Amino acid sequence: QVQLIESGGGLVQAGGSLRLSCAISGGTFSSYFMAWFRQAPGKEREFVALIGWNPYYAESVKGRFTISKDAAKNTVYLQMNSLTPDDTAVYYCARAPYQSITQSAYNYWGQGTQVTVSS
Fold first, then answer.
1. Phi and psi at residue 7, in whole multiples of 5°?
2. Percent of the chain with pLDDT over 90
3. In the chain, how many H helices and how many E strands?
């Protein structure tokens, strides 16, 4: 059974940084696409970044966030810099068999980790 476990969320001041981790158990991300999504209070879940052949980012985070992966640790990361209150959300990692920014493509999801950015 594939499980995705996020960690690294927390409270940070605007302008600060956080690094989220997504550890995969019961499977790998080789031959798959890994992504981060987020859901802010009262809003729909939205795409943030994905990695497979090449990284791809939502416009709102481009230049501030970096997605990466460590095959030896079976872990995907999201380095978030220059955070703003608009980045406050629950962040989820997910795995898909093909490249997509659409949630329906992802068949495995983590439980999410809360990121709160104070002004």
1. -155, 170
2. 91
3. 0, 11
Question: Which residue type, as a one-letter code, is found at position 97?
Answer: P
Q: Is 70 helix (H, G, I), strand (E, B) or coil?
A: strand
- CB-hemisphere CA count at 13 Å for 68? 9
Number of residues that this document lists for the chain = 119
**Burial of 27 by CB count in 10 Å (0-12 exposed, 13-18 middle, 19+ buried)?**
middle
pLDDT at 13: 98
Question: CA triplet 86, 23, 35: central angle to 5 degrees?
Answer: 45
pLDDT per position as a tens digit, 25-64: 988 888 899 999 999 999 999 999 999 988 999 999 999 9
- Between CA 110 and CA 41 the distance in angstroms is 18
Q: Distance between CA atoms of 8 and 15, rounded to whole angstroms?
A: 17
Question: What's the rounded Cα separation, in Å, for the pair 80 and 28?
Answer: 23
